[in-house]
């Protein structure tokens, strides 16, 4: 007979969203078991850029974006790429993406992300106050760079929206750019500088440290592959690959890019897919990097981490199964070498990870249609680290049956139906 155990709350996924959810729940007196196929920070949480991107309130699906997409897609190493072998599978996702780019949905998305980011900043400040986690935070500032005055002016709407939302920044000229970050190519003469930009200096170890805080508060962490979830009258039954079952009072599904299959088992058809992210981490001595650099016309970033300089970004839609195309990371590194002429591009470590993404660039946070005993928290795309603490707070509110600090209607699992 397979083993059978009981648990109060089971969190599926030990990435940063699952870790934060477990920590919030454990701090509020719940008894939590965390399950992950390979252990803490084994996926996207290990290789992200470490940016706490609170000002990023502008949805990627925007009016006119579909006119730009064909140009991007013609370049296999451009900012957006679809692997030919995946084109048919991604078609429904792209249809929802197109619907989300309408003016009405776009403007509502700004409102939704603004509220979420306000909560994210407040909750992350609370996390930062934990002594064991405080050392992972660095105030580096953020420099948003543009190739030309034309592209800088084209982004004016986005900066106005950020200003309306209360974010502070200032336009800087070439002289100030050179003072803020020496060594940039001379054509960068137009930029915005945000002094409040914050960097997590080691995203992988930060996620592990959050898990450790949850464990210190009483949570149990297990390496286990979940193959099924079934709602019951007073909770849910989890089935593991080894045949073991766990009877849980509540289940939190925070499995990132692997959440879709389990949500489908519960009757929720969520158009979750993956943005395959690529990066290269160079040795620290490769360049004297002062702060986060956004190369906005090329959709990639360069960030300072404890273990080195990370160059990454862009989007490849290719699912979970196709082999990595590391030409993308090489292309990003070559661009970084042109934009930072003194950058030593040798000796880097390449990485590819799966960002769990929904077509409207909002996560799924809410109850499963099968039962209020199952709570979803996945699909954060580029903003998983940024919105992890706020998601953990919202999850704890949902589990407790409390009113949430922001409306969760835009995040509901059935919004694409």
Automatic annotation (TrEMBL):
- Any idea where the FAD dependent oxidoreductase domain is? 8-398
Name the Pfam families for this protein. Answer: DAO
Q: Which residues form a coiled coil?
A: none
Which SUPFAM superfamilies does this chain map to? FAD-linked reductases, C-terminal domain, FAD/NAD(P)-binding domain
Q: Does the keyword Transferase apply?
A: no
Record-linked InterPro entries: FAD-dep_OxRdtase, FAD/NAD-bd_sf
Q: Which residues form the signal peptide?
A: none
Q: Which UniProt keywords apply?
A: Oxidoreductase
PANTHER family according to UniProt: GLYCINE OXIDASE (PTHR13847:SF289), SARCOSINE DEHYDROGENASE-RELATED (PTHR13847)
Q: What is this protein called?
A: FAD-binding oxidoreductase
Instruction: Please report the organism this UniProt entry assigns to the protein.
Output: Ciceribacter sichuanensis
């Amino acid at each position: 007979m397979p083993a059978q155990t009981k648990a109060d709350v089971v969190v599926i996924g030990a990435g940063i969203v699952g870790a934060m959810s477990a920590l919030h729940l454990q701090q509020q007196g719940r008894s939590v078991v965390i399950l992950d196929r390979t252990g803490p920070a084994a996926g996207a949480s290990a290789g992200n850029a470490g940016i706490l991107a609170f000002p990023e309130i502008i949805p990627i699906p925007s009016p006119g974006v579909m006119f730009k997409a064909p140009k991007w897609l013609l370049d296999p190493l451009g900012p957006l790429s679809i692997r030919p072998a995946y084109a048919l599978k991604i078609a429904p996702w792209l249809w929802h993406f197109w619907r989300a780019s309408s003016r009405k949905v776009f403007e509502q998305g700004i409102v939704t992300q603004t509220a979420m980011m306000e909560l994210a900043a407040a909750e992350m400040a609370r996390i930062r106050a934990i002594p064991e986690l405080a050392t992972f935070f660095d105030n580096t500032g953020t420099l948003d760079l543009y190739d030309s005055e034309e592209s800088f002016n084209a982004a004016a709407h986005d900066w106005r929206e950020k200003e309306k939302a209360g974010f502070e920044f200032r336009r800087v000229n070439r002289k100030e750019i050179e003072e803020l970050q020496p060594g940039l190519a001379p054509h960068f003469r137009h930029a915005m500088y945000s002094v409040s930009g914050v960097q997590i200096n080691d995203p992988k170890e930060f996620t592990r440290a959050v898990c450790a805080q949850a464990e210190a508060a009483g949570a149990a962490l297990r390496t286990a592959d979940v193959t099924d979830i079934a709602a019951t009258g007073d909770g849910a039954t989890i089935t593991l690959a080894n045949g073991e079952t766990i009877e849980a009072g509540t289940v939190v599904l925070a499995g990132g890019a692997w959440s879709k299959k389990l949500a489908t088992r519960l009757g929720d058809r969520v158009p979750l897919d993956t943005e395959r992210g690529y990066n290269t981490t160079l040795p620290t001595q490769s360049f004297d990097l002062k702060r986060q650099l956004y190369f906005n016309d090329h959709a990639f970033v360069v960030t300072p981490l404890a273990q080195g300089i990370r160059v990454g970004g862009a989007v490849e839609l290719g699912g979970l199964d196709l082999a990595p195309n590391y030409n993308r990371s090489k292309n990003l590194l070559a661009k970084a070498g042109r934009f930072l002429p003194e950058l030593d591009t040798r000796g880097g470590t390449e990485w590819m990870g799966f960002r769990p993404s929904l077509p409207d660039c909002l996560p799924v946070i809410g109850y499963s249609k099968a039962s209020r005993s199952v709570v979803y928290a996945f699909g954060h795309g580029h903003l998983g680290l940024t919105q992890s603490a706020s998601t953990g707070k919202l999850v704890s509110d949902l589990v407790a049956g409390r009113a949430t600090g922001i409306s969760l209607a835009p995040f509901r699992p059935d919004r694409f139906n």
